[in-house]
Amino acid sequence: MMMTPLLFFAFLLLSRLPGSLCRVTTVGDLRVLEGRSVMIPCHYGPQYASYVKYWCHGSVKDLCTSLVRSDAPRGPAAAGEDKVAMFDDPVQQVFTVTMTELQKEDSGWYWCGVEVGGVWSADVTASLHINVIQGMSVVDSMVSGEEGTSVTVQCLYSQGYRQHEKRWCRSGDWSSCLVTDGEGRYEDQAVEIRDDLTKAFTVTLKGLARRDTGWYWCAAGQQQVAVYILVTPPSTTAPAPTVTSPPEESPQSVPVSPSVSPLPRHIAKGADHHRPLWEFPLMVCGILFILMVLVLLPWKILDQYNKTHRTRQAELEARLSVSPRQLSADPDSVTPQVTTGRTPLSSSSTPPHRRCTVSDPAHPPVTSDL
């Protein structure tokens, strides 16, 4: 039977949907600089709004270590002493996990979980991998500004580079590097560098010129990250002419009821296009179900037709496979007996003999038995 493999394949396809598509979803894998913070959103369906949420660390879901729960009592850690915090928003159907001061040992698999409970009901979860690295990054990899203005680049580094000198260089030219002093500072007429000595330093380029366009490096120790500076021509928009008109009597202001306040424009505009988070997963599950029906129904009809055809073919072959010996032994089973008003002849009876005489003038008469 082909139906069992097809059903197994369909079940396997549904079970491999990423991030438990019909239940809980979260972001993809993350790379975070050592000493930095990260925020992870975990989205869930409306049916889980009142359930307990949790965040755990471990390679296996059933054996992971719980770090924070939505029902856990809050102690002194709520003031910011804890590295992990959670905020659940049932209205938006998302809970957010914040992890601070990440270290190399914090790398690994993490799980967004909704505690369902029960013997036959497993918790619904979604996983992601966080990799804590040592190195550098920038807030914006491309910064633009007009000629004559200033721009600022923010360079981030892991805590392992706090004591290293910071450099700002033209890409590919180490001799052009500007280096901070012991207090993490450098300044001249065109460039200013300020290091907070904890996790970031800023570079300000002053009085931009077209020749300043190009690639640069933020560097600390043996690590560097590239930044592109784009200098554009100054805008030439002329100021609008001022038109003087005679003063007009200002209309009487209309009081606004304090109990009615208009919604902010950006909220009112987005409300018309809001869709619940569970609508898309349900659509995907419905489409997969329809595809399964479209595949299995024609196969079932074809299988039924083949069974009927094979049955008829077997009956026909059985009728045609009767041997001649069976026909001679039982002729009535093949040829029906025709009944008339006369007594039927027996198959063992012999018709009566008739005598005939042939006369010939030249020979004596000959008698034969017929």
UniProtKB/TrEMBL annotation:
Domain of life of the organism encoding this protein: Eukaryota
Q: Does the keyword Cell inner membrane apply?
A: no
Chain intervals with Polar residues compositional bias: 334-351
* PROSITE patterns, A to Z: IG_LIKE
Q: Which residues form the signal peptide?
A: 1-22
Concerning CDD domains, the annotation shows: IgV_pIgR_like
Q: Which PANTHER family match?
A: CMRF35-LIKE MOLECULE 8, POLYMERIC-IMMUNOGLOBULIN RECEPTOR
Annotated GO molecular function terms are: transmembrane signaling receptor activity
Q: Which regions span the lipid bilayer? A: 280-302
Q: Mind telling me what this protein is named?
A: Ig-like domain-containing protein
User: Where is the segment annotated Disordered?
Assistant: 237-261, 321-370
Stretches assigned to the Ig-like domain: 147-228
> Which keywords accompany this UniProt record?
Membrane, Signal, Transmembrane, Transmembrane helix
Q: Does the keyword Ribosomal protein apply?
A: no
Q: Which GO terms describe its cellular component?
A: plasma membrane
Subcellular location(s) per record: Membrane
Identify the coding gene.
PIGR
